[in-house]
From TrEMBL:
GO cellular component: plasma membrane
Domain of life assignment: Bacteria
Alphabetical GO biological process terms: transmembrane transport
Transmembrane segments annotated in the record for this chain: 32-54, 165-191, 203-222, 228-251, 286-303, 340-358
UniProt similarity note: Belongs to the binding-protein-dependent transport system permease family.
Gene source species: Aerophobetes bacterium
Protein name per Swiss-Prot or TrEMBL: ABC transporter permease
Keyword Secreted: no
Alphabetically ordered keywords of this record: Membrane, Transmembrane, Transmembrane helix, Transport
Cross-referenced InterPro entries: MetI-like (IPR000515), MetI-like_sf (IPR035906), OppC_N (IPR025966)
Length: 370
């Protein structure tokens, strides 16, 4: 009897729950989405507080450590055993007597304890607050968790700094394309006529042009003497120009089918404005598709920026993005000798997979009655 009462209570809670409560219950059942959400939150946290989290600035050079290998964090010492304070071993440069290739090896005689909340290079958090406290660092020698590049710059610091541009450009670009796609697609599908013909011909033109060459052409038109901020917004607009076309076509087809439904006619008879009918009645009818399109478009924007920057047409140095970092890994010989230069690729892959899993969970949650 008690179990029957609990089941009845659960059924009652289900039928009286709001739409958002039902969506949250359905979303929690999607394990991949529940895993992807905190991963994305962590990545964006790193991007927001990159100045504090990284031990060095993105342009700080260490001339004595060109192409230094990554240093592993240790908690066990061969002589003292387990230690609470983590540490890394120092690096010692050697030269191959046959090829004269210089490389670094671990020097276990030099142990470098890692301290937290240490004072280091001054920086401006978000360009506003002058600080000099970093999350971690060492007192004697520098620490390179991801190694260094050809100029001796810390790859860990540069990767975290690069996430700010690569992650934010996806959000800004997607919201621009989402606004354009829903607005123009809604106008074309709901009103039809001349507006529909003009908008759809523009969509057909944009869809017929190969994406990469168009991106390259538009990105190449950006003046090279522009500041980092101007270039950033220019690349965002370039990526948004194409992103809205496919969404506008789908929104148009949905509204063509929904504008003659009974609830649309009832809203029109009750005196609702055209804009209110589109925003409050028609668009929520296919909210699940919009959510999926949004979450899948963000990684596409990130990949687009990465591709443009990798080809030298996107974000330009001294600004750093995941694409500009991968420019150093264009040659097979460099990657063969210094494979840690490919570490930014794992950040790109993790971000894209996390957004895809999150999109699947949100798609299922947007229709909780299934």
């Amino acid at each position: 009897m008690r179990s029957t009462g609990n089941e009845g209570q659960k059924k009652e809670e289900y039928y009286v729950a709001s739409q958002w409560q039902l969506m949250w219950r359905k979303f929690r059942k999607h394990q991949l989405a529940m895993t992807a959400a905190p991963i994305l939150a962590f990545l964006y946290f790193l991007a927001i507080f990159c100045e504090f989290i990284t031990p060095y600035g993105p342009l700080t050079r260490f001339p004595r450590y060109l192409y230094a290998r990554p240093q592993r964090i240790h908690f066990f010492d061969k002589t003292k055993g387990f230690q609470i304070r983590p540490f890394v071993y120092g690096l010692r440069r050697k030269t191959d007597p046959k090829t004269f290739h210089r490389y670094f090896v671990v020097d276990e005689r030099k142990k470098l304890p890692i301290y937290f909340f240490v004072k280091g290079e001054p920086y401006k958090l978000w360009g506003l607050f002058k600080l000099n406290v970093h999350l971690f660092g060492t007192k004697d020698n520098p620490v390179f968790l991801f190694g260094t590049d050809k100029l001796g710059r810390d790859l860990f610091s540069r990767t975290i700094y690069a996430s700010r541009i690569s992650l934010s450009i996806g959000l800004v670009g997607v919201f621009l394309s989402l606004a354009l796609g829903t607005l123009l697609g809604g106008v074309a599908g709901y009103f039809g006529g001349v507006a529909d013909s003009i908008i759809m011909r523009v969509v057909d033109l944009l869809v017929s042009i190969p994406t990469i060459p168009l991106w390259m052409a538009l990105a190449a038109a950006v003046p090279r003497d522009w500041s980092i901020i101007k270039t950033y917004f220019a690349i965002t607009i370039v990526l948004s120009i194409i992103g809205w076309a496919g969404l506008a076509r789908v929104v148009r087809s949905k509204l063509l089918a929904l504008r003659e439904e009974d609830f649309t006619m009832a809203a029109r008879i009750s005196g609702a404005t055209e804009g209110r009918i589109i925003v409050r009645h028609l668009l929520p009818s296919f909210l699940s598709y919009l959510i999926v399109n949004l979450t899948l478009a963000i990684p596409n924007m990130i990949l687009g920026e990465t591709a443009l920057s990798f080809l030298g047409l996107g974000i330009q140095p001294p600004a750093v993005s995941w694409g500009t970092l991968l420019q150093d890994a264009q040659h097979v010989r460099v990657v063969a000798h210094h494979p840690w230069l490919m570490i930014p690729v794992f950040f790109v892959i993790t971000t894209v997979l996390a957004f895809n899993f999150l999109g699947d969970g949100l798609r299922d949650a947007a229709d909780p009655y299934k």
